[in-house]
Design brief:
By secondary structure, the protein is of the alpha/beta class. Strand 6, helix 5 and strand 7 form a beta-alpha-beta unit. The chain starts with a strand and ends with a helix. 36% of the residues lie in helices and 21% in strands.
Length: 187
């Protein structure tokens, strides 16, 4: 089964960077607002099926590269399980990516993942955002992911949102915009 995506085109043609995320239908309104501050970014938000999506997301990365976007102008990210998937893809990708955004997520395969990582993304900037009262993915899971990546030499920034559960806030959106402007600045 093919993976469907919600595409939010850049406000400027052609786009010079791409942001890949998960749950297109749920995040499209948020990313449409964020896009207003990032005219040069096209957002590709795949609608993740129940089954593993690693192959499909790698295909989306290749499609963006084939369209002329250098891999170091592509950011991947996700929310919850999508964040976990983004971490696995980002850490194991053969393509050097611009960054990863991990929203209310965690690092799966903790015992195996660092046997699978590539040198391509050893220095990749990672933004981890987590609410301190997350009832689905415990806050400690986000903190542990941050600490583990940091001990392995990754450039990780951990943001805590007091009083936020398994959701998002305008403050988190502002942090996402700031991160995206840092890792994929307008050309």
């Amino acid at each position: 089964m093919a993976l469907t995506s919600v595409i939010i085109p850049s406000r400027r043609i052609p786009h010079t960077a791409s942001g890949l995320g998960d749950s297109g239908e749920g995040w499209a309104p948020v990313m449409s607002e964020i896009r207003k501050k990032l005219d040069h970014v096209k957002f590709v938000l795949p609608n993740a099926p129940i089954r593993p999506v690693t192959v499909n997301v790698n295909r989306i990365i290749r499609d963006e590269i084939d369209s002329g976007i250098p891999s170091n102008r592509i950011v991947i990210g996700g929310f919850s399980q999508g964040a976990a998937t983004s971490l696995v893809i980002g850490l194991t990708s053969e393509y050097p990516l611009a960054g990863m955004m991990v929203l209310s997520g965690y690092l799966p395969l903790k015992d195996k993942i660092f046997n699978m990582t590539t040198e391509s993304n050893k220095g990749i900037p990672v933004l981890i955002c987590h609410g301190d009262i997350d009832e689905v993915v415990p806050y400690e899971g986000g903190k542990q992911t941050h600490e583990l990546l940091k001990t392995k030499g990754y450039s990780v920034n951990f943001k805590t949102y007091p009083g936020m559960g398994h959701s998002s806030t305008p403050e988190e959106f502002n942090d996402m915009i700031q991160f995206l402007n840092q890792v994929i600045p307008d050309l």
